[in-house]
């Protein structure tokens, strides 16, 4: 934190180094404690770079446990980063069958809940008509975005595939 306060930069190392994950968690917790938003953002960004290499590493359960023990529920930075990465990779058999990954799911109930929420969100999306004067929105299955089937907006009669519609963020 001292380096960040003097330089405005966050020192980090190789993203495939498993100890980097724990370092990111520690830095984030300190930044949270002292309310240093910029440092939290640096730690979260670097964590996102590192987590993709380490979802099945031996320290993954400890990383998850540390995140959920060192942050409050309202502080979503690292919680969202780890649960989103887990949800994206859970379809991979290597991840799903990995004992360390499963240990994290088993031991940290809030992590398991966050992963399940993310998976449920991926099943349905809200999209809106791309015509700026039209405010029509619809909840569809995520798979329908890539169906290639032409749809018609019931309000403005715009005709296109859903892939041209805008996804509404929560």
UniProtKB/TrEMBL annotation:
PANTHER family: BTB DOMAIN-CONTAINING PROTEIN-RELATED, BTB_POZ DOMAIN PROTEIN. This is Uncharacterized protein.
